Amino acid sequence: MEDFSQSIGTPWRRGHLAAFYRAVAELLLYPEERDNERIAADLAALADAPAEARDPLATFLANPRSGDLDEYLAVLELSPPCPLYLGAYIFDEPSSCLGAGLSSRNGYVIEVAAVYRHFGFEHTGNELADFLPLMTEFLAASLDRLERDGIGIRRRFVEHYFIPGLKPLRERLVQYDSPYAGLVAGLEVAIERDRAMQAADPIWVPPARVGRPPATVMSFRGRQPSALAGDSA
Q1: 7-61 residue pLDDT tens
Q2: Which of 119, 150, 143 is nearest to 193 (CA)?
């Protein structure tokens, strides 16, 4: 698998990060559900981005298997060896129904959904909150809501909820020689650039429960027309 990383000084801008996240979120969906116009728009937004932002997407799209329905179903969806749920790589799978009810992953999924709400988004789709396309879409959308994040919740999302699942997912995909491994490798590079931009930010400490600003709608291209949504302010 190609190494897309360059030096940490590579000049990513916030707009590059958002466009990259949106493109990856779209490409991680079932091929027939992807919005090709949206992908094209995000690729255009990356025209002046560093190569490490452009190359993973170009490499993936040049691979004939990137649009193969059987590839997606066999590797990512139907009893998949590489499920697109990051919590599956952070927590052990329970061996019983009782264990499932007590699983630490349940708390993780609830916390991820709570981060969405903090930024004014409501998760309304059928997928769990730790569905990787949904989490990646959130990373893009939250870049436009940083005024809501004076206490470092987005940084905690990146470091505690997102990063820990990426490497084991990529390693599993590599075992199956999947082209999706390159997308996840690109995400690993992007998230480190994102993390560097947040280096001076605080890390979230759970606050006392207080009122929050009203949620607004964010349309997410996924299994539902709007998987992250809320009432208009």
Answers
A1: 444 589 999 999 999 999 999 999 999 999 999 999 999 999 999 999 999 999 9
A2: 143
| Dist. CA 126–CA 124, nearest whole Å | 7
The token pair at 135 is 């989490």
SS3 123: strand
Tell me the per-residue pLDDT of 186-197, one tens digit each, with 9 for 90 and over: 999 999 999 998
Closest among 115, 120, 133, 122 to 38, alpha carbons compared: 133
Domain boundaries, the chain: 14-229
Q: Which amino acid is at 124?
A: T
Q: Which of 143, 161, 118 is nearest to 198 (CA)?
A: 143
Any idea what DSSP says for residue 143? T
| pLDDT at position 97 over 90 | no
Matching CATH number, 14-229, of 1.10.3720.10, 3.40.190.10, 1.10.3480.10, 3.40.50.720: 1.10.3480.10
8 Å CB contact between 1 and 185: yes
